[in-house]
Amino acid sequence: MSKLECCIDKVLIKDNDVIIQGWAYKNSIEEMSISIEGTDKFDKTVIKRKDVFDKFNGEEAAMDAGFSISTPYSKKIVLIAESGESKSRTEINPKAWIKKDNQGMSISKALRVLNSNNIKKVIRGIKTNGLKATYYKSKYKINSKVNEGVSYDKWIRKMLPTADQLANERNHAFEYNPKISIIIPTFNTKIVFLEEVIDSVINQSYTNWELCIADGASSNQDTIKRLKEYEKQDKRIRVNYLTENYMISGNSNEALKLVTGEYVGLLDHDDLLTENALYEYVKRLNEDRDVEFLYSDEDKIDEKCEEYFDPHFKQDWAPDTFRSCNYICHFSVFSKSLLDKVGNFNHKFDGSQDYDIILRLTEKAKKIAHISKVLYHWRVHRDSTAGGIGAKEYCIDAGRRAVQAHLDRIDEKGTVVNGAFGGCYKVNYNINEDKKVSIIIPNKDEISTLKNCIDSILSKTRYKNYEIVVVENNSEDKNIFEYYKEIERRINIKVVTWEREFNYSAINNFGIENSDGEFILLLNNDVEVISENWLEEMLMHAQRPQVGAVGAKLYYKDDTIQHYGVVLGVGGVAEHLGKGLGRYDGGHMGRLFMILNVSAVTGACLMIRRSLFEELERLNEDLAVAYNDVDLCMRARKSGYLNVVTPYAELYHYESRSRGLEDNEEKIKRLENEMNLFNGIWGENIEDPYYNVNFSKQRADFKLSEN
Fold first, then answer.
1. Is the pLDDT reported for residue 255 higher than 50?
2. DSSP per residue over 235-272, as a string?
């Protein structure tokens, strides 16, 4: 008789909800149910899990064994999995899970990594994926287990300003000293929370502020009494006592009526600012007076303000990422003149009113600035999640409608649907016409590798208007030429020959010259299509006039991530985002499940408009092997285009099969020369605006920097 198995993969805290991701399965006969003990306030999504499908020998029901379940925050949550008469009960401490993710394992436990079973896995990995791919994957896995990591609570306490630093800030004279009006809507706020949030403003090292509070007719007279005491204590605190509760948007708009400052900041009634928050914002405004919208990093704090956890280290302004979720959130500060242009809060989007107003503000802002410091503490407590799952569904729907309204305003044709988890969205952009895509595949020998790639394209690709151009280069196996004859019988495949020495850039440029599609897809021969909609998912972005290169989500054979965008300045010159993490690992704040803006994407699967490719003067043939794809993407960014990566185009990438590894003296020297050439073009200490400076520069898997 089969046994019920339940596995928790990840626990996240988002807003004031806990998101639990994992899988549960028993057999294909008895239905599986997932719930939270003691409450009906939870929201559950089914996640496709090929790894579970494989584990249970292809039982069809196992494909739907994955789940993502969200429930209001609690210090202890019990997840129940039931199937027939079997029942599994798993106790979860959310903060303990987050600590475990941040800190990894102890050295003594990590020694278990070096066992005979894992050594056998490494040997098999080298045979299957090659030495280079196995080396990187092994390095990340060992690092993540051996490295004790960094305690975020200890880290942030070192980063918070000292008394001496705050004194210096208070004495600092800025050339530009704008008044910042902070608005807070209140309603029956707990006295201790109210005092702490107001005190966090009073204690600011920058003093030219005003606090504009609108109280929505609180029935708790202690709240009213304390507000009046604060008004008397500090003339910069002003309160509008409303006769009725106009709900979150209405109350916020009433607070805006009190504003007299040049800039407006949004602060929730139970959260906290760091004492240097406003100083850092004004410092940035003095550096660039054209900035009209600013935001910072943030974290969470427990109810008693005893522990900091779950930091949110954000990207610089990334419009596609922001359409995927409201990653800006706190602490948003913007010019009052900009607000006057776009209008106040809209009650139609209550529940996601901040998302809506930030979308409108960023549409019109001259410049948007991200301050990569944690300047806002978001308090997590049970009372902050009112209304349970009904309210959560209401918020999710409001967020979806806010993004849809944003697209309609800027005349971007598309439909917004819910994404991988609550509060995450996916834009399905309309594909204007049946545009032809030219798939360029360089090849040398490797019949089985190329055949696997082409067979997967032909059998799994739903979008039909494409051609395949194979660029033959110096093959030595006679059998490959027989295979070329076979595939050329198809109307949409041709083979062209590059007769000179290997140069990845030149070979692709040559293949593109021998194609006629309006869109170009650079594709390695060692990839295999997974998702049948991969081509249209990439095309919907590549057709957008503001987009440069588009990349896909690539996996190793064992379903660990090989690529989800390229991060600059990590691991030397560049590294792949999420490399070595599991296929179902969402990464920092679920980012690996979202459509993102990135600095670059790999040329192993890169789509771009032909007209833009020519505008950018094609691939740089001086970069014969390495960094040519990154260089192309950098030139696109320099010209004002956005590079995009989408998780909805999925492929396997069996890295470095065809040309082999950079493992002899000649190849290593060539790689060093190309690294020096790339650095000469773009600079050695290049920063990536889409990868937060607080992450480690050793790897691109969102680990906290120890510096």
1. yes
2. TTEEEEE-SS--HHHHHHHHHHTT--SSEEEE--TT-E
> In this structure, which topology does domain 1-95 adopt according to CATH?
Immunoglobulin-like (2.60.40)
Q: Which CATH class is domain 163-428?
A: alpha beta
Smallest Cα–Cα separation from 562: which of 659, 683, 650? 650
pLDDT, position 117: 59
Residue spans of the domains in the chain: they are 1-95, 105-148, 163-428, 431-682
Whether 585 has a pLDDT exceeding 70, the answer reads: yes
Q: Token digits for 379?
A: 């308090």
Q: Where are the alpha helices (DSSP H) in 84-210?
A: 94-103, 107-110, 116-129, 131-146, 152-159, 163-171, 191-202
Going from the C-alpha of 289 to that of each of 35, 193, 280, 285, the distances in angstroms are 52, 34, 14, 5
Classify domain 431-682 at the CATH topology level: Spore Coat Polysaccharide Biosynthesis Protein SpsA; Chain A (3.90.550)
Per-residue model confidence as pLDDT tens digits over 372-405: 999 999 998 766 543 344 457 889 999 999 999 9
Q: What is the pLDDT of residues 129-158, one digit of tens each?
A: 444 334 434 543 444 443 446 789 999 999
d(CA 558, CA 316): 32
657: pLDDT strictly greater than 70 = no
Find all residues with CB under 8 Å of 335, minimum gap 6, and list them.
262, 263, 264, 292, 293
Q: What whole-number distance in Å separates Cα of residue 454 and Cα of residue 486? A: 12
Fold match, 163-428 / 431-682:
yes
Tokens of 148: 């004790």
- Three-state DSSP at 456 gives helix
| Predicted pLDDT of residue 72 | 86
- State the helix-helix crossing angle for 388-409 and 353-364, rounded to 10 degrees: 20
pLDDT digit string, tens, across residues 492-502: 999 999 999 99
Which string of b and e fits 289-318 if b means at least 16 CB within 10 Å?
eebbbbbbbbbbbbbeeeebbbbbbbbbbb
* DSSP string computed for 476-511: --HHHHHHHHHHTTSTTEEEEE--SS--HHHHHHHH
Report the sign of the C-alpha dihedral through residues 670, 676, 678, 684, in that order.
positive
Cα separation values, 241 from 187, 213, 217, 348, 574, Å:
10, 8, 7, 23, 55
Asked if the model's pLDDT at residue 125 lies above 70, the reply is no
Phi first, then psi: what are they for 673, rounded to 5°? -60, -40
Distance CA 320, CA 306 (A): 36
Question: pTM score, two decimals?
Answer: 0.83
Instruction: Report d(CA 494, CA 518) in Å as an integer.
Output: 17
Alpha helices (runs of H) in 478-605, residue ranges in sequence order: 478-487, 504-513, 534-542
Which residues share a beta bridge with 88?
A: 81
Tokens of 613: 């490719």
pLDDT in tens, 60-74: 888 888 888 888 888
Helix (H) / strand (E) element for 675: namely helix 665-682
Q: Give residue 1's pLDDT.
A: 53
